[in-house]
Amino acid sequence: MAVFWSHGYDATSMAELAAATGLNKPSLYAAFGDKAQLFRQALARYAQTQAEPHLRALAREPDVRAAIQGFLASMADVLADPARPGGCFIVNATAACGTGDLPDSVEAAVHQAHAISREAVRQRLAQAERQGQLPAGTALDALADFLLTVVAGMAVRAKAGTPRAALDPVIALALGAIPR
Question: What is the CATH number of domain 40-175?
Answer without folding.
Answer: 1.10.357.10
